[in-house]
Amino acid sequence: GWGSPERHRPHCWNNRNCEKDAVITRQDMAVPQLAASRQPSAFAATSGLAGHGSPADQQALLSSLHLTLMRLRAEGREGFETADLSRIQDTSEPAEIRFSFVRQAFTKIASGIASHRKKRKQMLVDQILSYLHETSSRATLNLSMVATAFGLKESYLYHLFKESVGTSFSSYLESMRIERAQALLRTTSSSVDEIGKAVGYGS
Prior knowledge:
single chain, 203 residues, mainly alpha, 10 helices, 63% helix
């Protein structure tokens, strides 16, 4: 009766690694950089496309960025609900205006990825905390055991816990056990030894 990890595992569990789904990948973070690497000067300039290449070069860049955005859209990237991608290819619009739509689209992608990352991380943390509360009476419970139960690396779980909860895994577990022991001392007639074992101290 220690609680089952399956009850707390994220929806991403089947055939996937929760750690990979909970955090933003380097590939996700590199979406704007990928386009920038193809034409760094255009992305670096605060004035947009002005003064960067011939109209044909600008059109080629816009077409390349449009294809990148369409590929990301097909992959289900968040942030495209309000992105007006069709106007990027509208040659009746000035290149500068069309490039502004590119910037808006990438901004929305970045915002969507950040929002998704935050939600996934918080869901994972909530599930881990729930698991801890159900299994804290197990004397052998430790960081390694929880990491294994959720398919995470120990180092990742350590930093995720510290960042999200504000304290280390061991400190949180210790505080939780002490609070439970204090509650049992106030509300039961059990001995200190019995209470210690009930909250996870001793075998």
